[in-house]
Model the fold of this input.
Amino acid sequence: MPFVPVLSARAMRFDLITLFPEMFAAVRDQGVSGRAHARGIWSLVTWNPRDFTTDVHRTVDDRPYGGGPGMVMLAEPLSQAVEAARAARLQAGADTPEAPAPVVLLSPAGRTHDQAGARRWADGTGAILICGRYEGIDQRFIDRCVDEEVSLGDFVLSGGELGAMVLMDSVVRLLPGVLHDAESAVQDSFNPALDGLLDSPHYTRPEVWRGDPVPEPLLSGHHARIAAWRREQSLALTAARRPELIERARAAGRLDGSDERVLEQAGRDSK
Ligand SMILES: CCN(CC)Cc1ccc(CNC(=O)c2csc3nc[nH]c(=O)c23)cc1
Done:
């Protein structure tokens, strides 16, 4: 009997620990991620720490020891919510005891998310995502339950929910079947590990809009000319706005002689 590998096409599942579960309708029900969710390519389950409290006020936060502004999220409701999510994942076959999905805290102190991170996540089976609110979370929960922390960048949000939605959107787009092949090719162009240049400008009908025409090369029907024009535009725009991406592409050997001539010309033009 030949060995037939069992391709466990285990769908991507995210479990969100959040005080605002209704926020997640944005990625669960709308657009590319919404369609993929409806098709069962991925799933999303929310768990509200308030449902894991025992007092009449359903308390999820308290004042910080040592004083200071704001409130801190209690460890116990968060921990019970994570345990419930973990059990549900095992029950659903999303996790195995040997390979539990990571518990990920969205946090300003985390490693900054990027396309490489999205690709790594897309190879996995999801995560339990913790969305903080208030000033932060009791450190003892983080030390005991959190495997990694992820930030969106150096700006201050009001909570982790938007970070979680951005992370999930960047991952779901990469899953097989979510984007049409052509789009997924475009998807790669955003990946600094592959092409990493900014997109060339886009145009659609009408050919002239309020007196502004579409650039002539795009109307030529000459595919080589169109590709050359788009490459020139990407190089010039990237050199102007994100020169570090040019360096990265050059270091990775993704720029050819023609590209370098375009960049020299763009450099002369900008002086
Ligand atoms: C006063 C110092 N602040 C830390 C920078 C306190 C603080 C602000 C905002 C938050 C809520 N932010 C997030 O949960 C968050 C989660 S991911 C992320 N990425 C970038 N910026 C962010 O604020 C976040 C938590 C603590």
In short: The longest helix spans residues 223-241. Strands lie at 12-17, 42-47, 61-62, 72-73, 103-112, 126-131, 136-137, 148-151, 208-209, 212-213.
